[in-house]
Amino acid sequence: MKIIIGSKNPAKVHAVKTAFTGENLIFESLNVPSEVSEQPFSDEETIQGAINRANHAINLGNGDIGIGLEGGVHQTKHGLFLCNWGALVTVGMAPIVAGGARILLPEEIAKRLLNGEELGPVMDDYAKKKNVRKNEGAIGIFTNGLVNREEMFNHVSKMLVGQYQYKMNKGE
Ligand SMILES: O=P(O)(O)OP(=O)(O)OP(=O)(O)OC[C@H]1O[C@@H](n2cnc3c(O)ncnc32)[C@H](O)[C@@H]1O
């Protein structure tokens, strides 16, 4: 089975690879467009980005399964939350979607995003590190390393694969 991952971000690629079990699995990772804003600003937009990435991945890579993972933020009356979504697409099935754990972003980060900055560079600046988005992620920084981005996306990926297996077993 050929699984195409719609990103070359190592935190995402490792997260997907370790979510699948079984034999004869071939993985390929491709940079594909999300066709949403560089910084998605709602659950709706972030889900759409994940689905778009999954669709582009399966088509471009000529795979059996396409996976898209997308990071964004979502405004609530309690503040701006980090949100992450994943989508799995395969022929003959509606897209399967799953969401990741979410945490409230500090006010100083939220302000910068509301002023149009992107979370990736803002996190590097805030944490005085390079490529936070490819490593522990904002979730890793703000949970003191207890939950990192790969782990969070691995949970999302397992929820995608598990739902896919359930539907396949039921013959849906
Ligand atoms: O290489 P790709 O797959 O594009 O990965 P990405 O991290 O750049 O892209 P996402 O679409 O997942 O995230 C959208 C934006 O939010 C940033 N972002 C999202 N979650 C983040 C996190 O946990 N830590 C740091 N930046 C994050 C990210 O860097 C982008 O600027």
List keywords for this structure.
binds inosine 5'-triphosphate; Maf protein; alpha/beta; 6 helices; five-stranded mixed beta sheet; single chain; 5 strands; metal-binding
Number of helices: 6
Strand content: 15-25%
How many individual domains?
1
Low-confidence stretches: none
Gap between N and C termini: 19 Å
Proportion of residues in helical segments = 40-55%
Element pattern in H and E = EHEHEEEHHHH
- 3D shape: globular
CATH topology: Maf protein
Q: What's the CATH architecture?
A: Alpha-Beta Complex
Which ligands are bound? inosine 5'-triphosphate
Task: Tell me the structural class.
Answer: alpha/beta
CATH hierarchy class name: Alpha Beta
Q: Radius of gyration in whole Å, from Cα?
A: 16 Å
Strand arrangement within the widest β-sheet reads 2-1-3-4-5
Please describe the topology of this protein.
Layout: E1 2-5, H1 10-17, E2 26-29, H2 43-61, E3 65-76, E4 79-90, E5 96-99, H3 107-114, H4 119-127, H5 137-142, H6 149-170
Parallel strand pairs: 1-2, 1-3
Antiparallel strand pairs: 3-4, 4-5
Helix pairs in contact: 1-6
Inosine 5'-triphosphate (ITT) binds next to strand 3, helix 4 and helix 5.
